[in-house]
Design goal:
This protein has twelve helices and twelve strands. By secondary structure, the chain is α/β, with parallel strands linked by helices. It folds into two domains: 1-102 and 269-358, Isopropylmalate Dehydrogenase; 119-255, Isopropylmalate Dehydrogenase, CATH 3.40.718. The strands form two sheets. It has a ten-stranded mixed β-sheet with strand order 2-1-3-12-11-4-5-10-8-9, sandwiched between helices. A two-stranded antiparallel sheet has the order 6-7. Bound molecules: 1,4-dihydronicotinamide adenine dinucleotide and magnesium ion. Magnesium ion (MG) is lined by residues 245, 249. One of its GO terms (cellular component) is cytosol.
Length: 358
Amino acid sequence: MTKNIAILPGDGIGREVTAEAVKLIQVVAASRGETWNLEEGLIGGSALDATGSPLPEETVRLCRAADAVLLGAVGGPKWDHLPGDKRPEAGLLGIRKALEVYANLRPIRTWPGLLLASPLKPELVEGVDFIIVRELTGGLYFGQPKARLDGGEAVVDTLHYTRAEIRRVVKVAFELAKGRQGRLTSVDKANVLESSRVWREVVEEVASEYPGVLVEHLLVDNAAMQIITRPKTFDVIVTENMFGDILSDEAAVITGSIGMLPSASLGEAGPGLYEPVHGSAPDIAGQGLANPLATFLSVALMMRHSLHLPEAADAIEQAVHGVIERGVRTRDLARSGEAFVKTADVSAMVCEDVKRRL
Ligand code: NAI
Ligand code: MG
């Protein structure tokens, strides 16, 4: 059995971490005696430079035909002067929309060896393990109209959802909760927003299909506090696009480094999109300093959710756990004065370990 995986390196450290992830994916393929088809596509600033578009049609075709897509990161100062629809980030929004990957899963967990990397007290963050499910293709970021009005003196953005759009992402969250600790927190702003009142109604409807899942509703401003004050009590959190964007960056602080945070974006059918949460990190690009582990953990999610190879997912997660426990640190994880290793070094260690495990 071969697998078709589209690799979109993008810009900056996106290129460095995906190059290492390709080696990791090949370790998994080789362990099964298979050769997988890994094909690179252009996205972001490098696509702009090469073709004039941040998301060439060919890239969309490549991704649609793949079993899964791995994306690095896009953007950088070189393209910051461009208008919104011409920027590298337009490629990112474009590919998420083109693949209709409406459920963005962001696991937030702490690593026993990294508790001190978090600015929060170790006893507060020890054992944190929850998933944020962010709606990704609707809500405030996509609703129309979205425009400047009255010659620029007024402006409108629109939070638009259909019940069907809410229901499908809420179902993903219930399914996850069912397979975990059976607790779901739905986050909204139902005291103010009509869209949130409907969101809550849909959550309650879907809840009747999942009697084993305990549902809690939190207003988003309160949720922002609770995530920091009682992070251990969450299991699965589901929320609107912008709320999820903000809360997941906030939650990232619990884990210590953005270099450890993976994500998976899933749709109904078609390939899942897997990417580290971090950006292209122009400040360290080209120096071999990037932490590839967020991308490796994204590959683990790909193995689990798109390629149906849970044992490969477990092996990668255990290998990452292993290097952290052995005290291996990339620069983002090292405390000041502490020794650190380079991107390729930690990558080689994880690849070796995964090879042994599979
Ligand atoms: P960033 O995530 O690229 O970097 C923030 C800080 O974290 C920097 O100090 C960086 O060195 C560090 N960092 C990030 N990932 C790291 C890793 N794997 N290993 C070690 N250190 C890491 O966010 P920033 O600086 O706000 O944005 C830089 C560019 O990336 C911008 O053009 C932005 O638009 C773009 N961006 C792209 C995203 C994507 O492609 N998904 C997401 C966020 C930003
Ligand atoms: Mg964000």
